[in-house]
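thought: fold this chain, then report.
action: predict
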Amino acid sequence: MGASLKTTNVARRLGTFAGAAALVVSLDQLVKAWARAALAVGEPVTLIPHVMDLSLVYNTGAAFSMGEGKGLLFVAIAAVITVGCAVLCWREETIPVPLAVSLGCVAGGGIGNAIDRIVAGKVTDFFATTFMDFAVFNVADIFITCGVAVAFILWTRWDRAREAADAAEA
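observation:
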């Protein structure tokens, strides 16, 4: 493959990854700013009756308040995962676009929560399920969770296709 085409493909993969991450960070930070302005701690607002409330809480840990007070550790983990995803998109020439997007969603969610931890020392959460006892979460958490699940499925399909192609060449 020519150097120019290879550079273009790398730029496309990284651009796709970075674009998805930037969109997730932007959406996450906008919605969190709205939640902090519109909601009051301890005063839930019904979003979907008997399903979900908007309930402003601040979390210094991770999911279910695990690791409280370890914010810088979670920032470091988010940084390592973001760099790892970016390196994967940079190095893997045949990575499918949807996989690059899902990795960008994971990175963007991690960055969104890391911004909260760095700026405020705590993460803004506000989605609270009412039909079951579950952690209060935010937009970044949704993108991390869904991004990991989709990336796993896409990675598995992509890896199988690569193995089949390698076997056909042999």
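thought: worth noting. The chain has one domain: 3-169.
final: tokens above.
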